[in-house]
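We modelled the chain as a single entity of 183 amino acids. Its sequence is:
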Amino acid sequence: MEIKTCGDLDWKNENFSEYAVLTFVFDKKTDVVLLIHKKRGLGNGKVNAPGGRIEPDESDFEAAVRETQEEVCITPKNVKKVGELNFYFTNGYLLKGFVFVCQDYSGEIKETDEALPFWCKIDEIPYENMWADDKFWLPLMLGGKKFSGYFVFDNDKMLDKNIIVDENLSLKYDKNWHPSKKF
């Protein structure tokens, strides 16, 4: 069956290829958010928040901290999970991501092999340089909403989307699941 819409998938029973995280670090005093120019991997060349894949036996919270440390050399503090992103790519790749936010960190922000970090005013977020789905869920996150997003992509082109906003969303990650532990 060719999948072109979010309704073509049974998202709750899909076997995701990988799990990942994004961590948005805010400085509310100056109304800015830390973003990166991604230098390699999925999303190479795009603007995003620090993030990456969850490792085996690692919680999503642990991954949010580790990936931020690896990509921009800071340690986010008091991270809070606010969203879930579910992606199907027409090549068969399924990715579930969890979105985290924080307003405090330690360390000094630095460029790495993976990312060129920069502070961005919230009202100047460069959506045109981001994944096509970001302009639909990122404003919800900025507005303090909990959300789940479902997206179908053909390479970089978004074919369909469905976003659910619900303050009672259960944003759970099973630490014991990993592609290497399927059987």
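As a brief sanity check on the tokenised model: The chain has one domain: 6-181. The radius of gyration is 16 Å.
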